[in-house]
């Protein structure tokens, strides 16, 4: 397999300066490129549990998976649908709908794999590809380390799974790879748990036809590029490898 560098590999690893705008805003993208879940009291309660550093792992898993389920369903709502009639058990005709385009999932290893279970729960027969981006320890340059995608991925829509969108580094690199594979920009639906204005603005400027679905827009990035108030390292918390890190 040929390895090739991509622009960025992580939400904290940069090969160039961040945008110079001092006050990034998401207002211009809401409802078009950016789709925010309704900020209900129930969603806020789930976030309260998931963000609590003292939450038990089973509490964290339950709350975060409920949010992910909502995100997956919101992402599916953005797919194109076509009319499809079926006959009900009483012999009547129901004028229904079905997806008008093939769809697959692509998770960004490893944190994105935490979202696969809920995607399969909603779409049991969906195919899921994987992409791994890693930083070279010596050169500090990003590299595409591993990809396994459906052969016909360019024929339909892609639900891109990554819980965190901070600086936008991983997102830009992954989207670039999918475009290289022939996926249309407008066919990429990027599903993430939380984001910040800096990341949204960067992705939407570069790829305005990609649609982002998120459950929370955080206040900002701090000087270490951590999201505030944040949720911690989602992958470590989800897979239980954060023991001793708190």
Automatic annotation (TrEMBL):
Keywords: Glycosyltransferase, Transferase. Residues 38-241 form the Phosphoribosyltransferase domain. It comes from the Bacteria. This is Uracil phosphoribosyltransferase. Residues 1-22 are annotated as: Disordered. The lineage of its organism: Bacteria, Bacillati, Actinomycetota, Actinomycetes, Kitasatosporales. It comes from Streptomyces stramineus. InterPro entries: PRTase-like, PRTase_dom. GO terms for molecular function: glycosyltransferase activity. SUPFAM superfamilies: PRTase-like (SSF53271).
């Amino acid at each position: 397999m040929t390895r090739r560098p991509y622009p960025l590999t992580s939400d904290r690893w940069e090969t160039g300066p961040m945008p110079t705008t001092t006050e990034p805003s998401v207002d211009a993208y809401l409802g078009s490129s950016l789709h925010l879940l309704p900020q209900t009291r129930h969603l806020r309660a789930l976030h309260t549990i998931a963000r609590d550093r003292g939450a038990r792992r089973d509490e964290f898993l339950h709350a975060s998976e409920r949010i992910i389920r909502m995100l997956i369903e919101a992402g599916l709502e953005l797919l194109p649908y076509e009319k499809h009639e079926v006959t009900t058990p009483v012999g009547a005709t129901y004028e229904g709908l079905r997806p008008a385009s093939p769809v697959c999932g692509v998770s960004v290893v490893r944190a994105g794999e935490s979202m696969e279970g809920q995607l399969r729960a909603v779409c049991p027969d969906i195919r899921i590809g994987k992409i791994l981006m890693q930083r070279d320890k010596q050169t500090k340059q990003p590299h595409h380390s591993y990809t396994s995608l459906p052969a016909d991925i360019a024929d339909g829509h892609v639900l891109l799974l990554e819980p965190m969108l901070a600086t936008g580094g991983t997102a830009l690199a992954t989207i670039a790879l999918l475009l290289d594979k022939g996926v249309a920009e407008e066919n990429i639906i990027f599903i993430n748990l939380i984001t910040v204005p800096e990341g949204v603005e960067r992705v939407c400027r570069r790829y305005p036809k990609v649609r982002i679905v998120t459950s929370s827009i955080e206040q900002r990035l701090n000087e270490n590029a951590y999201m505030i108030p944040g949720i911690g390292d989602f992958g470590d918390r989800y897979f239980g490898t954060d023991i001793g890190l708190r």
